[in-house]
């Protein structure tokens, strides 16, 4: 098996506008990494590379989610008189 391509989807929070990976692409690749690890049949070195890639993808997904939450919070109207 080949090692995961870490250059193609390097973690760059900010999403497509920042030139980084999308949440959906990162999540799909993470699911593939998990599937490959669960299936077994790879060497220890390949398993370690997959695990490292999975950790990187999980961090990317988390950063993208945090960015989305920040954008939602910034778009919400500030509470004022009569608003809760």
Automatic annotation (TrEMBL):
Query: Which Gene Ontology cellular component terms are annotated?
Result: cytosol; exodeoxyribonuclease VII complex
UniProt keywords, alphabetically: Cytoplasm, Exonuclease, Hydrolase, Nuclease
> Which Pfam families does the record associate with it?
Exonuc_VII_S (PF02609)
Question: Can you provide one Gene Ontology molecular function annotated for this UniProt record?
Answer: exodeoxyribonuclease VII activity
The Enzyme Commission number assigned here is 3.1.11.6
Catalytic reactions of this protein: Exonucleolytic cleavage in either 5'- to 3'- or 3'- to 5'-direction to yield nucleoside 5'-phosphates
Residue ranges for the region (Disordered) are 1-28
Q: Name one GO biological process term.
A: DNA catabolic process
Look up the domain of life of the source. Answer: Bacteria
Which major enzyme category is it? hydrolase
Q: Where can this protein be found?
A: Cytoplasm
Q: Which family does it belong to?
A: Belongs to the XseB family.
Q: What does this protein do?
A: Bidirectionally degrades single-stranded DNA into large acid-insoluble oligonucleotides, which are then degraded further into small acid-soluble oligonucleotides.
Q: List the NCBIfam families.
A: PRK00977.1-3, xseB
The record's subunit annotation is: Heterooligomer composed of large and small subunits.
Q: Know the name of this protein?
A: Exodeoxyribonuclease 7 small subunit
Native source organism of the sequence: Pseudofrankia asymbiotica
């Amino acid at each position: 098996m080949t090692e995961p391509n870490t250059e193609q989807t390097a973690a760059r929070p900010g999403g497509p506008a920042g030139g980084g990976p999308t949440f959906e692409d990162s999540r799909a690749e993470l699911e593939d990494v998990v599937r490959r690890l669960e299936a077994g049949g790879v060497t220890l070195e390949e398993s370690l590379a997959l695990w490292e890639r999975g950790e990187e993808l999980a961090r990317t997904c988390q950063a993208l989610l945090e960015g989305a939450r920040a954008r939602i919070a910034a778009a919400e109207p500030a509470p004022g008189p009569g608003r809760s």
